[in-house]
Design a protein that fits this description.
The structure holds 2 protein chains of 2 kinds.
Chain A: H1 12-45, H2 60-87, E1 96-103, E2 106-110, E3 116-118, E4 120-124, E5 129-135, E6 140-144, E7 149-153, E8 159-163, E9 169-175, E10 187-193, H3 195-204, H4 211-221, H5 224-228, E11 246-248, E12 254-256, H6 259-267, H7 290-302
Parallel strand pairs in A: 1-5, 4-10
Antiparallel strand pairs in A: 1-2, 2-3, 5-8, 6-7, 6-9, 9-10, 11-12
Chain B: H1 11-16, H2 26-30, H3 35-63, H4 74-93, H5 96-110, H6 118-140, H7 154-158, H8 163-190, H9 203-235, H10 248-282, H11 289-302, H12 318-346, H13 355-378, H14 380-386, H15 390-420, H16 426-452, H17 467-497, H18 538-541
The chains are: A alpha+beta, B mainly alpha.
Chain lengths: 316, 547
């Protein structure tokens, strides 16, 4: 494990967070130092019996000056923090997607090619990686301190984290939302490897079907293909190419078909009805598990993967 | 000095007429409606809770000396930090200064005989004691392992132990808060002595007033969220459970809608104490009196709009994050203004470094560090990394312990002569003040570093790289424990052997110092008439005007 990581160079984002942190620390030391020095200085200079005691002090002009100065200083810090936050908000579109399912008290990881891991994430550097996360029970939180990122993991909902690491190594993976008895043991490692090592690692793991092909099997066995298949007589939306695209809904809204949307469509099919279709799909709540949903999404995603997507999610 | 029409009784007679000698039976205390006696009852009660919660965290701190723990299980560890948090927040910090010094001083400071509703005041104390005992029972017998935050669905479906009883205890305590808040608001509005205008009120009264408003407005929301937990856990009503269409984040929104303003319930009275003590020992008016009032009220109002900064990584909209971040920076401005004004109060003063002033200086120093690290946590990218780490633990302990508890001790030492009529040994008290500051810094400074390095809070076992910080922190906690116990000895000693204080040992302004020490049951022989502004110390007289 990385021994001492007060300044992280594991990703460009982590370094920018650290630069901001140390700049703010310096500023804070100056402000606090000024207050402490003044209090000490005044305590000596104006001690009881001092000839300097008494006399007129400045009033409103000083009050207005430091109020305005503080306000603009804080506004500047906010602007700095907010702008760096906005830059990191959206993941690139070509991410390597790794699924994470949290439960008391372990992390279940599924690589895109179907490799399963427990409390360990292998990921390549120099590649945008996205974690698609959900929980089977309480709220957990995925904390990768070396990458300076964290996101709560909620039941019945997807949340995401993304990063592009640039330095290989083994780093902490910690749960930071108190989740019950063994919260402090819900820890693990993230293993960042060069793309070559990552390819080598995936090939040496026991051969597994990729998530997408497992999903294809489920798609048939659960009966999805009966309606959504190309030869079906039921009027249901064609799922090829739908992932990552805008979908027009019957109530006039337009949503992007992302992981959360597909998950909702499986569990709560009446929530978002696609325009032009009847609400005939039954709910698969309590029928499919989180793990199976992950596979189904991977399959639906694979139906779009042969098409190149640009940033707006439109076909080229 | 102030011009106050007030006939004082001779000392000999005054001593025999103090509120302390108005009856010696247990019944005369338990059935009293005298705000001063109720203040003393509260002081004894919260001191008890303070040491219970302190004992719990002492075990936790010792346990953390070793990365794999020393002598307790995960379950016991979780229950101990939950006990520490629940008791410290709701049964020490929230009631601390308002119920003790607020109760004792508010009527004295505005020249009233008692609070507006004396019997409601006594009832508040009984509700508080009942709530405290229910909660303590729940936390000790059976235990609760949710942390003081009761996050759902952990608290509703997964946690073991007496969650319902603990939530009920805190729910009941809320009524005590609300009743006290209403009482203080009514008292401040209705019972001010002739001439005691709003712009002549001591800043402590303003602080208690602002706190009371927050208490009355925020506490019902806590009550609702706790009630909903009970409804879901006990009756199975689907509210926060996502499997039944509920939203677990709804709880967090409701909880922090109370619990962020609750931070201001804890710190605003401390700010009031700091102003009183600084003015007295600098012999000057508090610098920027009006700015101080505006700051207090601004904090009280904007404090209601920043709760989302506890939820930057919880899964709320990133744009909501930015709005809450912005508002959090805004609420920090008046706090900074107050620090500058306190510092400037010393300017051209005549300063004596007595124990209360040392405690207040320690308050200002620790509050400044706590406030500045708050800016780190208000910044979204830094909070994403620091959320739920020891950095946050250190930050809020600087505010609540460094700030509120230091101010509580300052108040205790400043008004002790008024409350008991006796002086304590100042040298011991100064040693106590400096030991507190030292112990506090050693305990909590390393927590900032390990927090930034990634040490999560609420961890029983932890990666070995963090051990040195934990060891230093535990050593600091030992120093802190000594520092907090020390006043128990010399203050108790002073009750019997301390020098007789006299009416006004600090030569302070303020109506509470115009009556005898300890004050008579009715506070004043005749209703005082106020003709001067607050803090008209002798050094103000040499100015052109009192500004």
């Amino acid at each position: 494990m990385h021994p001492f990581a007060l300044y992280s160079t594991v990703s460009g984002y982590a370094t920018s967070v650290d630069n901001f942190f140390f700049a703010l620390t310096l500023l804070s030391i100056i402000i606090a130092g000024l207050v402490f020095v003044l209090i000490a200085y005044f305590s000596v200079r104006y001690r009881e019996g001092s000839p300097h005691s008494g006399g007129r002090r400045p009033g409103l002009e000083l009050e207005i000056t430091w109020t305005a100065a503080t306000f603009f200083l804080f506004l500047f810090i906010f602007w700095w923090a907010a702008s760096s936050e906005l830059q990191a908000l959206h993941a690139p579109t070509n991410t390597l997607d790794i699924h994470v399912v949290a439960k008391q008290w372990m992390w279940k990881i599924e690589q895109p090619n179907g490799i399963r891991e427990i409390n360990e994430i292998h990921a390549p550097i120099d590649t945008p990686v996205r974690l698609i996360m959900t929980s089977q029970d309480v709220i957990h939180s995925m904390f990768l301190p070396a990458l300076r990122i964290k996101q709560d993991v909620l039941p019945d909902r997807y949340t995401y984290l993304w990063f592009t690491a640039k330095k290989a190594g083994v780093y902490h993976l910690l749960c930071t939302q108190f989740c019950g008895t063994e919260h402090s043991r819900m820890t693990g490692r993230i293993v960042l490897m060069t793309p070559q090592d990552y390819a080598h690692w995936t090939s040496t793991q026991q051969p597994a079907q990729s998530l997408a092909s497992q999903g294809e099997g489920l798609f048939r066995s659960l009966g999805c293909s009966g309606c959504h298949g190309p030869n079906s007589s039921v009027h249901a939306p064609d799922l090829a190419g739908v992932y990552g695209h805008a979908v027009q809904l019957s109530d006039g809204r337009t949503v992007t078909a992302d992981d959360a949307y597909i998950r909702d469509s499986i569990l709560l099919p009446r929530k978002d009805i696609v325009a032009g279709y009847a609400p005939v799909m039954p709910s698969f709540e309590h029928i499919v598990s989180e793990d199976q949903i992950v596979r189904l999404i991977a399959y639906i995603k694979s139906l779009s993967s042969d098409r190149v997507l640009n940033a707006k999610g439109e076909r080229k | 000095m102030t011009d106050i029409t007030l006939d004082r009784l001779p000392h000999v007679e005054a001593a025999s007429l103090s509120y302390l000698t108005e009856g010696h039976t247990l019944g005369s205390w338990l059935l009293t409606t005298d705000h001063k006696r109720i203040g003393v009852l509260y002081a004894l009660t919260i001191t008890f809770f303070f040491f219970i919660a302190g004992a719990a965290i002492s075990v936790v701190r010792l346990e953390l000396v070793h990365p794999h723990g020393l002598f307790i299980t995960d379950e016991e560890y979780n229950r101990l930090f939950t006990l520490h948090g629940v008791i410290m927040v709701w049964f020490f910090l929230v009631p601390s200064i308002p119920t003790t010094f607020g109760n004792f001083l508010l009527p004295l400071m505005i020249g009233a005989k008692d609070v507006a509703f004396p019997r409601l005041n006594l009832m508040s104390w009984y509700i508080f004691v009942a709530a405290g005992l229910v909660t303590l029972y729940a936390l000790i017998a059976g235990g609760v392992d949710t942390g003081w935050t009761f996050y759902t669905p952990l608290s509703t479906f997964y946690a073991n132990g007496n969650v319902i009883a603990a939530a009920a205890g805190v729910f009941i305590a809320g009524f005590s808060s609300i009743a006290t808040g209403i009482n203080f608001i009514a008292t401040t509005h209705m019972l001010r002595a002739p001439g005691m205008t709003w712009t002549r009120l001591p800043l402590f009264v303003w602080a208690i007033y602002a706190t009371s408003v927050v208490m009355v407005l925020a506490t019902p929301v806590l009550a609702m969220s706790l009630l909903l937990i009970v409804a879901e856990r006990w009756l199975g009503m689907p509210i926060f459970d996502p499997a039944n269409g509920g939203d677990p984040l709804l709880f967090q929104h409701m909880f922090w809608f109370y619990s962020h303003p609750a931070v201001y319930i804890m710190i605003l009275p401390a700010m009031g104490v700091a102003s009183e003590v600084l003015a007295c020992f600098a012999r000057r008016r508090v610098f920027g009196y009006v700015a101080m009032i505006i700051s207090l009220m601004t904090i009280a109002v904007i404090g209601f709009m920043v709760w989302g900064h506890h939820m930057f990584v919880a899964g709320q909209s990133p744009y909501a994050n930015l709005i809450f971040s912005f508002l959090s920076f805004i609420v920090a401005v008046p706090s900074a203004i107050k620090v500058f004004n306190w510092t400037a109060t010393l300017y051209k003063g005549s300063i004596t470094l007595k124990a209360p002033l040392l405690y207040v200086m320690s308050f200002i120093g620790l509050f400044t560090i706590g406030g500045l690290t708050g800016l780190f946590l208000a910044s979204v990218p830094l909070d994403i990394h620091l959320h739920a780490t020891y950095f946050v633990v250190a930050h809020f302990h600087f505010i609540m312990v460094g700030g509120t508890v230091s101010a509580f001790f300052a108040a205790l030492h400043f008004w002790w002569p008024k409350i008991t009529g006796r002086m304590y040994p100042d040298a011991w008290a100064r040693i106590g003040a400096m030991t507190t500051f030292l112990g506090f810094m050693v305990t909590f400074l390393p927590q900032f570093v390990m927090g930034y390095d990634g040490m999560p809070r609420r961890y029983h076992v932890y990666p070995e790289q963090f051990q040195p910080y934990h060891v230093i922190s535990t050593i600091g906690a030992v120093i802190l424990a000594v520092a907090y116990t020390l006043p128990l000895f010399y203050l108790t000693w002073s009750l019997r052997y301390g020098k007789i204080a006299g009416d006004n040992p600090w030569h302070a302004t303020g109506l509470e110092w115009k009556t005898s020490s300890p004050p008579p049951k009715e506070n004043f022989e005749h209703t005082p008439v106020v003709t001067e502004e607050a803090y008209f110390y002798e050094l103000e007289g040499v100015e052109d005007n009192g500004s």
